[in-house]
Structure to design on (221 residues):
């Protein structure tokens, strides 16, 4: 039997890069075994409920593990609650993502002298609740689309802290990914939008209950 809690701890203790950690974790990966282990472990469920929520970009983020060097999450993009126009953004950490089910496109951007006008914000997690964020307007910039990458089931998507991107999902399939992040490389992340009225706005996330987490996990099998 696979014990994913142990696998996550081994990956954390031997961390080099997110891609190497992910490749170690998904060797002989079995989603049913992972879900079974979680739903039979009340302590693990409590941890997941405390650290997981529905993200404003239209997906559920289930935090499975937080170690000294890496974090492991499940991202679930439901067909009935996808954000059709997710924010263009970057992250404070390096990441690697294994597509368990479904598919998506990743649009890559860069701030340039030419491109589309956008409003640049920095966002920070609030000290009182690390799952909530506050936006600070920085300036108006031009954003250029560099490339679009497509990822299907069993593919791995990897990116560095500060890489500006947007995920465009498959409209016809549930998409689930196992998402690995490093520790923070930057002090803030960036969001680029068409909206000039977000200054000071707080993005509050909705935590998930034990019953909700179990239902969602069983629904992706």
């Amino acid at each position: 039997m696979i014990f994913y809690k142990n696998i996550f701890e081994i990956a954390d203790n031997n961390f080099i890069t997110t891609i190497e950690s992910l490749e170690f974790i998904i060797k002989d990966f079995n989603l049913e075994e992972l879900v079974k282990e979680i739903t039979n472990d009340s302590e693990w469920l409590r941890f997941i409920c405390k650290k997981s929520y529905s993200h404003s970009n239209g997906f559920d983020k289930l935090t499975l593990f937080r170690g000294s060097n890496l974090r492991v999450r499940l991202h679930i993009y439901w067909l009935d609650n996808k954000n059709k126009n997710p924010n263009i953004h970057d992250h404070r950490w390096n990441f690697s993502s294994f597509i368990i089910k479904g598919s998506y496109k990743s649009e890559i951007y860069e701030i340039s002298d030419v491109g589309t006008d956008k409003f640049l914000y920095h966002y920070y997690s609030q000290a009182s609740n690390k799952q909530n964020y506050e936006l600070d307007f920085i300036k108006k910039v031009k954003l250029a689309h560099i490339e679009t990458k497509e990822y299907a089931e069993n593919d791995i998507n990897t990116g560095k802290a500060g890489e500006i991107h947007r995920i465009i999902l498959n409209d016809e399939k549930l998409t689930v990914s196992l998402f690995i992040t490093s520790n923070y490389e930057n002090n803030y992340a960036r969001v680029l939008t068409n909206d000039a009225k977000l200054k000071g706005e707080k993005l509050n996330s909705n935590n998930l209950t034990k019953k909700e987490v179990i239902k969602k996990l069983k629904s992706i099998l």
About this structure: The radius of gyration is 17 Å. The longest strand covers residues 129-151. The helical segments are 4-13, 18-25, 31-39, 42-51, 210-219.
